[in-house]
Amino acid sequence: MAKTDLMKDLGPISQRTMADVVEKELRDYLKKKLFKPGDALPSELELADALGVSRNVVREALSRLRMLGMIETKKRRGMILSTPDILGSFERVLDPLIIDDSTLQDIFELRLTLEMGLADILYLRKKKKDIAELEAIAKSQDPGGKGQAFRINNEIAFHGKIYQMTGNETLMRFQNMLLPIFGYVISLEKVPQIGKVSHVDLVNILKDGSKEEFRQGMHEHLKPHFNRLK
Amino acid sequence: MAKTDLMKDLGPISQRTMADVVEKELRDYLKKKLFKPGDALPSELELADALGVSRNVVREALSRLRMLGMIETKKRRGMILSTPDILGSFERVLDPLIIDDSTLQDIFELRLTLEMGLADILYLRKKKKDIAELEAIAKSQDPGGKGQAFRINNEIAFHGKIYQMTGNETLMRFQNMLLPIFGYVISLEKVPQIGKVSHVDLVNILKDGSKEEFRQGMHEHLKPHFNRLK
């Protein structure tokens, strides 16, 4: 039998470990049985017996769910299903040094997309007090000679404040996680470029201008980043 | 000694398990030593010795990193650092039944934000061939009497195709993960509402209209969802 025939007939064995399989089984089980936060789970021993695997493998799989925030252990009640932190594990892997280039590029664009898309929610929820805070951040940005590190922190403070003003905590955390990746991609270029619309300009639009004007202003502000795209 | 004094002086012991601690240690170690994808990791035994913990605990922590796609085991080379799937674990926890209400609402808004923000990248990359496909999806949506399930699938196909047209795979996968949550939030309302601008209208704007017109059209299309926001 030729080697290619053999490969076609057999194919490679799945690379999944026992922990992969058990983790998937457990997640499917919780879903199928409509477990809700607070519901008690069977014990490690019961699960191992039902699945016909060792307790070590079950412990490994449960440990993964614990990391995802899906389960927690309570005094006297044992393991219960919990409300997961949906961004917790995302945060763990967002390291520019281990992410491949095409994903880095995707994240760069994802941040631009969010920035361009948030005007609607921002205009729904912006408050005078917040705009004043944003203005203070914007005006503290150009005192001259504070250097690159200050500039980057100020950039993060300004855009972070805008996200905070949307009142959407997930969006804000998500954006905060994307920023280092965004900064990394920019740092690969030698000459930093600055858009024609400054932070102070954006604050002024936010005070008196329309949603559409804000969106156009944001686009101008981010223009050098859009120019990077292919 | 009063109970409150005692609580103040002692405070609760951290809820972190040994696996939590070791997982964090390992991630910090990989980061500090600038490990890159492909680099070989020390063995389970070496790690357990260095950390002064049992092999079981190390195995648990490594199993978590394996789930995140951060490490993999290679024939003859042992464990190596890998390129993680940044959305893999996010996908695992996106279940509307276990996410709390305020996060569900956040995700609902996150999807609206992406939808409103993607015009720039879409206009940069849209191709005639893709617009024709999008048109076919849009036109297949109103044949009458195909029912709710068809309607939802068609909705997913249409918006999914738009994301695909951006050429951003992360954005597309991310959106696909958000859709069920979005659908869940909508299903909590009794009467489904439809915006004035239809899928066919959006395709026509994409053919001949400007980026700004597309964005306005998308806003009209999503109007019933924006009306839900507080």
From TrEMBL, chains A, B:
Please list the residue ranges annotated as the HTH gntR-type domain: 16-84
Q: Which GO terms describe its molecular function?
A: DNA binding; DNA-binding transcription factor activity
Which keywords describe this protein according to UniProt?
DNA-binding, Transcription, Transcription regulation
**Record's signal peptide:** none
CDD domains tied to this protein: WHTH_GntR
Q: Where are the transmembrane segments?
A: none
Q: Which PANTHER family match?
A: TRANSCRIPTIONAL REGULATOR, GNTR FAMILY, UXU OPERON TRANSCRIPTIONAL REGULATOR
Output this protein's name. FadR family transcriptional regulator
